[in-house]
Amino acid sequence: MHTFQKTYETLKAKLLDINTEVNLLKDDVDRAIEQTCGPLGNLGIGNTHLYHLTYCNFEDNEDDECTFVPLRFVISQVIPDHTFGSKIGHVFYDSATTYVSKLTSKVFQPADAYCIRFYFRLYAVTTTGAIKLSLQVGEHPGYPFHSIPASNLPAKMWILAEASPDQEYIQHPFKIILENNIRTYVYIDDIMIFNTRCNTDDRH
Q1: Three-state DSSP class for 147?
Q2: What 3-state class would DSSP assign to 186?
Q3: Per-residue CA distances from 142 to 21, 100, 134, 160, 165 (Å)
Q4: Could you say which DSSP state residue 68 is in?
Q5: 16 CB contacts (<8 Å, ≥6 apart)?
Q6: List of residues 6+ apart from 181 with CB closer than 8 A
Q7: Domain for residue 134, yes or no?
Q8: Which of 5, 68, 109, 195 has the smallest CB count inside 10 Å?
């Protein structure tokens, strides 16, 4: 037992070091983009041609600048996450399998294009339900633009999904809504949102 605990603590320390390195690399990427393209964040918000990347791995779930407002989703360590492949990491976990669960993003500014990417995982195979993406513009309840039906999806493995909304929907400030009603436990991790079109057409 002592050996196991020592190994666990060693692995935990290494994962925390990796998390620190990842954050430092993200800062380096931001600085490189700013030097090449101009300011990021609120300072660059008026220029739709600047590159903006929002990345949410939920490791800093209390202070994450890209916080999603959950409805029936909760931050959890119930399974190994996608970011680290470990239960030390965090995922959004939908345990309410008989209800519709949602994640609603912060407001994004207009641009010529956007790509929404994320990883999801199913606890078990099912043919019922879907993961749906929509945009909320103003008070409109949502413009649907992508759906991932549960049929033929494997269980217990991380799957990459990505989609680009139609340009007509992103000409005004908007929020992204991820909605799930798949009838098994669903996990969401590593959401990325950037203002260029997705570069693949064969993802879920």
Answers
A1: strand
A2: strand
A3: 37, 15, 5, 23, 12
A4: P
A5: 88
A6: 99, 100, 101, 129, 130
A7: yes
A8: 5
Q: Which two tokens stand for residue 38?
A: 């101009």
Do the domain assignments include residue 140? yes
Count CB atoms within 10 A of the CB of residue 165: 21
**pLDDT tens column, 68-114:** 888 888 888 888 888 888 777 788 888 766 678 889 998 898 998 99
Radius of gyration of the chain (CA): 18
Which token pair is 62? 């209390």
Which of 47, 42, 63, 67 is closest to 195 using CA atoms? 47
φ/ψ (deg, to 5) at 33: -65, -45
Contact 115, 203 (CB under 8 A): no
**Secondary structure letter of residue 129 according to DSSP:** -
Q: Would you say residue 124 lies in a domain?
A: yes
CATH code for position 171: 2.60.120.200
Note whether residue 100 is domain-resident.
Answer: yes
Q: How far apart are CA 146 and CA 134, in angstroms?
A: 7
Which residues contact residue 30 at a Cβ distance below 8 angstroms, ignoring those fewer than 6 apart? Answer: 40
pLDDT score at 132: 94
Domain carrying residue 187: 50-194
Q: What residues are paired with 56 via a beta bridge? A: 191
Q: How many domains does the chain have?
A: 1
CB contact at 8 A, 66 and 106: yes
How many whole angstroms separate alpha carbon 24 and alpha carbon 39?
Answer: 18
pTM attached to this predicted model: 0.75
CB of 166 within 8 A of CB of 131? no
